[in-house]
């Protein structure tokens, strides 16, 4: 029987705030039996995906959709399809119409950058927020957003900045990746009968005192739709349409996609912390090995 060495990221204990390398996430070498049984294959990982949903599995309690990590357990991660997430949620839940306006938070991130480009293809005016000036320039100059702002550097407040950029016509769809103060501002500015697509709440994931949104009653008085989802909610028909359309857009160069690549499995804990702190610029990926 032959044994092979394999390095793994291991969950150490639940964090109350940010998961720290060496305290909550560690690296260990494990032996793997590479003697295969009938119909088994041995794979080699070349890269892995870092996604905010993993933080929910570190809370020490069962998530509504996935099991939580237990101390000593190897971190396993599902392949998350940001493209399908963006496409399915925007078109099926947002029901965008040409001439409308959409506001996207974390707009330079894995999902946000695609939502914005797809929205533009369908004739929407697109406003985005991000956490640095270079990310804002990426939204404006490369993704061709109509307006964008750095929420960390607003002269007044997120609310006033959003109201100014939306103008008298407001906006019709809010694609929420962050929750918190930005969600509160969006509820204030969004038009009556607007749609809020709830994709993530990263501003609250690592806080023991989450931001208390104070205007939820306006969901009622504005007749808003607030729509949460899981990516597997969407039908096979939507998946087929996505694969056909988005593949063609990518091949034609009509959609671009930015990745934030960290090299080396040993750097995964630090890279994941950076993702939760907003230090990534684009989709967070760890390169483990070459072909």
Automatic annotation (TrEMBL):
Q: Which domain of life is it from?
A: Eukaryota
Give the keywords, sorted: Oxidoreductase
| Presence of the UniProt keyword Oxidoreductase in the record | yes
CDD domains hit by this protein:
PGDH
Q: Where is the Enoyl reductase (ER) domain?
A: 22-286
Q: One Pfam match, by short name?
A: ADH_zinc_N
**What one GO molecular function would you report for this record?**
oxidoreductase activity, acting on the CH-CH group of donors, NAD or NADP as acceptor
Q: What is this protein called?
A: Enoyl reductase (ER) domain-containing protein
Source organism (scientific name):
Lobosporangium transversale
